[in-house]
Amino acid sequence: MSVELPQKLMESFAQTTGLDGSEPPKRYLWTDAFAVCNFLSLFEATGEERYLRQAEVLTHQVHHVLGRHRPDEERTGWISGLSEEQGEQHPTAGGLRIGKTLNERPVDQPYDSRLEWDRDGQYFHYLTKWMHALQRMSHVTGNLHLLTWAAELDEAAHRSFVISSSTGGSIRMYWKMSIDLSRPLVDSMGHHDPLDGLVTTLELVSDKRLTGTHKDKLNIAEHDFDAMCQQKNWATEDALGIGGLLDAAVRLFQLIQRSHLDRVPLLFNLLHDAQLSLKTFRGSYSLTRHPEQRLAFRELGLAIGLRGLKLITKMESLDDRISELLEEMLPYCSMADEIESFWSVVEHRRVQTWKDHEDINTVMLATALLPESLLKL
Which residues pair with 68 in a beta bridge? Predict the structure, then answer.
């Protein structure tokens, strides 16, 4: 596997976001979670220590930028409310900001669906991405503090985003919370948020290095996420959503193999719904459009999921039904080649729709080109 293009992409990202050079840090949680994993993959592929250092610096910046209040508001310090010293020891205890351009919506301001996309706060599915990145960092570096911080982030997210009905109804989640996790900003539930919570929590609970009260609290979180995942339809027409569904299936597949979890029925449901989603998406012809009419990061999310799908087909079978499903889904993996080839062309990365989301596009293209990282914590 050539790492030349991923190297160039990640070096560009490091410069433009203030990881290297003189630019001030420009942090965004979703993008940075992918970036940490990419730097770790480049370190493992090349043996160059600089990539490990970049992953460590990026982790530090995320905690000290997104774990603290914004510079354009009156509140200061850690968003958890901890003292400076305690905050340094527990930087994820209050969650992490998204990193949006605008500050969060004030309490007395009406909800505006268009404007909300540009406002700060906390997204649950961004937090799960960072939990995964921290656990991966912990495995590569051997630093147990990173694993503890992932667990503390899971605990904070579960405590704040998951709610029980006051009338005894079903448990559910908020989609977006305020910076300090004190109030919901969007009270609907994300389609795949319970699934993200379950798979990420299972990864942490299955880590034998995690013990004590953290494991006890995560067992409760696992129970709640599992309850929300029962009888759920995961199918979606969105490319990024399909990619996320495939990513969850790939990670669950590995967990079942590695930790012997009794989750084959859930895995079958995920793959079944992913297959239906891929069939619908393939018939949409959206990959034939002009680059100005396409959103690279959404397509690249699909490519990342398909790369993981192709890799697990080479692993030991779990179940005959799973094997049959994987065999039926393999032809869809050619879409990953289409997507990666298209966005690897420099001219396609000069259009405005690429530039509008350049950081996230750059990092996710690098991830798609480093598929082996998908099978690692």
Answer: 78
